């Protein structure tokens, strides 16, 4: 990379799926004090063009099956940024070309980072409400966030290296934290190239995997493998479920399969890494307690008044390891007067300071004078044995504000009438939570590249779905 003219503070794009080699350009960038911008191949080309142009990216590493996306993005950005392909290519330089042995590499010394508060990574926000924002994370923040994640894992075993497995690409901050935490302790990393429930069980058995972090949807894939009992998963000491909402029922069901494993929920954001976790004494339904150097407060969504224990509001955090700000702007436009950053997540803490998440502030809506929190209804729907996943959203109404509606993904082979689902729900919710907008079946719920439900797109999708 240095031979191509890369200098400190240049921006390097990595648009790479999960693989053993994907960490190579990331580490090389850090050794040169360059900045890593992580993109995902499922992003629209217009978004990629905007990010490449805005950051004046100097080099792009991309998987061979995503080259066309980058070519379209570069054309839209009207720039000729150099492209390096991870895989085969007759048109562009490849990563294999770049890692060929060179005489001068024996004399290589990493660039000294004089200011640890400088940006090391640029990550994208969730993008659930529009085009993602560019989040800047410093060397200081990311190293310490990774150390904190390491400390969380040390509650499992602080004496010996472990075997980690990560499913997400480096587009996720959690993957960088897992990789860095692995380097700190000398852990072995297992890197699946695709997410297949049975293959993951084979990997756990074969490589004696001791921990991994997974979104709820992947955890569901593992426990629905028909011959689950044929695999020895006893080496797995900890499964952290994070990234999106997880119901207590789902957590309990996963734990019933992984009997020798601590299955627990954790909570983090791209803006700060891990906020809460609890390995030693988890509580069902809770995302745990604050990690080191993390402060959390809960405020009223409308008045911003500070709330106490067991009062629902927006979760805000403050940490020396938090994001520096958005690209080309500092934290002042994000923080409140006390330096807390709002997460957009709704939740509360109990008398023992365990945090409980109930939804997103942007996802709530009003039916007449009642606030409806979608996750309250989703949790009930997902307790039905035929329901794999549910998403609740508001349909605009002329006089009532919004009517709650839902789309449901059924378990494989399930055969149930909508009327049965409606009857099941009506017996378990308040009158104002009734799904006046209706219920429809859907094959899959649309998600962002980070696995979050794209709730804002659901009213339009719902309208086009057939009535059954």
UniProtKB/TrEMBL annotation:
<dbReference type="InterPro" id="IPR025110">
    <property type="entry name" value="AMP-bd_C"/>
</dbReference>
<dbReference type="GO" id="GO:0005777">
    <property type="term" value="C:peroxisome"/>
</dbReference>
<protein>
    <submittedName>
        <fullName>Uncharacterized protein</fullName>
    </submittedName>
</protein>
<dbReference type="InterPro" id="IPR042099">
    <property type="entry name" value="ANL_N_sf"/>
</dbReference>
<feature type="domain" description="AMP-dependent synthetase/ligase">
    <location>
        <begin position="2"/>
        <end position="327"/>
    </location>
</feature>
<dbReference type="InterPro" id="IPR020845">
    <property type="entry name" value="AMP-binding_CS"/>
</dbReference>
<dbReference type="InterPro" id="IPR045851">
    <property type="entry name" value="AMP-bd_C_sf"/>
</dbReference>
<keyword id="KW-0576">Peroxisome</keyword>
<feature type="domain" description="AMP-binding enzyme C-terminal">
    <location>
        <begin position="377"/>
        <end position="452"/>
    </location>
</feature>
<comment type="similarity">
    <text>Belongs to the ATP-dependent AMP-binding enzyme family.</text>
</comment>
<dbReference type="InterPro" id="IPR000873">
    <property type="entry name" value="AMP-dep_synth/lig_dom"/>
</dbReference>
<dbReference type="Pfam" id="PF00501">
    <property type="entry name" value="AMP-binding"/>
</dbReference>
<keyword id="KW-0436">Ligase</keyword>
<dbReference type="GO" id="GO:0016405">
    <property type="term" value="F:CoA-ligase activity"/>
</dbReference>
<dbReference type="Pfam" id="PF13193">
    <property type="entry name" value="AMP-binding_C"/>
</dbReference>
């Amino acid at each position: 990379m240095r031979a191509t003219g890369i200098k400190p503070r240049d921006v390097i794009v990595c648009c790479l799926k999960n693989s053993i080699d994907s960490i190579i350009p990331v580490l090389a960038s850090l050794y040169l004090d360059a900045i890593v911008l992580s993109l995902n191949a499922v992003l629209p080309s217009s978004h990629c063009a905007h990010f490449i142009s805005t950051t004046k990216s100097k080099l792009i590493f991309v998987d061979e099956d995503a080259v066309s996306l980058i070519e379209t993005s570069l054309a839209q950005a009207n720039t000729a940024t150099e492209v390096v392909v991870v895989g085969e290519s007759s048109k562009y330089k490849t990563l294999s070309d770049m890692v060929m042995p060179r005489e001068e590499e024996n004399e290589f010394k990493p660039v000294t980072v004089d200011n640890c508060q400088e940006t090391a990574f640029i990550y994208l926000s969730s993008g659930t409400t529009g085009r993602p924002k560019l989040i800047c994370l410093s060397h200081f923040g990311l190293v310490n966030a990774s150390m904190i994640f390491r400390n969380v894992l040390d509650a499992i075993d602080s004496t010996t290296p472990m075997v980690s497995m990560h499913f997400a690409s480096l587009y996720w901050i959690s993957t960088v934290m897992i990789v860095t935490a692995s380097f700190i302790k000398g852990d072995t990393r297992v890197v699946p190239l695709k997410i297949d429930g049975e293959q993951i069980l084979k990997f756990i058995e074969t490589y004696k995997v001791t921990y991994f972090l997974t979104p709820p949807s992947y955890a569901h894939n593992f426990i629905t493998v028909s011959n689950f009992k044929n695999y020895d998963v006893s080496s797995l000491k900890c499964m952290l479920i994070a990234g999106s909402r997880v119901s207590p029922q789902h957590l309990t069901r996963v734990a019933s399969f992984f009997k020798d494993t601590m299955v627990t929920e954790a909570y983090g954001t791209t803006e700060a890494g891990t906020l809460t976790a609890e390995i030693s004494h988890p509580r069902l339904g809770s995302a745990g307690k604050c990690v080191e150097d993390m402060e959390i407060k809960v405020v009223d969504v409308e008045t911003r008044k500070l709330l106490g224990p067991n009062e629902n509001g927006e979760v805000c955090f403050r940490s020396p390891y938090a994001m520096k700000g958005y690209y080309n702007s500092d934290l002042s436009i994000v923080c409140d007067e006390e330096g807390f950053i709002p997460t957009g997540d709704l939740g509360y803490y109990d008398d023992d300071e365990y945090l409980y998440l109930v939804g997103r502030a942007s996802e709530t809506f009003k039916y007449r004078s009642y606030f409806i929190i979608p996750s309250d209804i989703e949790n009930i729907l997902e307790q039905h044995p035929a329901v794999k996943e549910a998403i609740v959203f508001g349909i605009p109404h002329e006089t009532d504000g919004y009517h709650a509606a839902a789309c449901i993904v059924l378990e494989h082979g399930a055969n149930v009438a909508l009327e049965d689902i409606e009857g099941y729900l009506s017996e378990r919710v308040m009158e104002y939570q009734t799904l006046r907008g209706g219920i429809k079946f859907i094959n899959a719920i649309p998600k962002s590249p980070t696995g979050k439900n794209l709730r804002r797109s659901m009213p339009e999708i719902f309208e086009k779905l057939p009535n059954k």
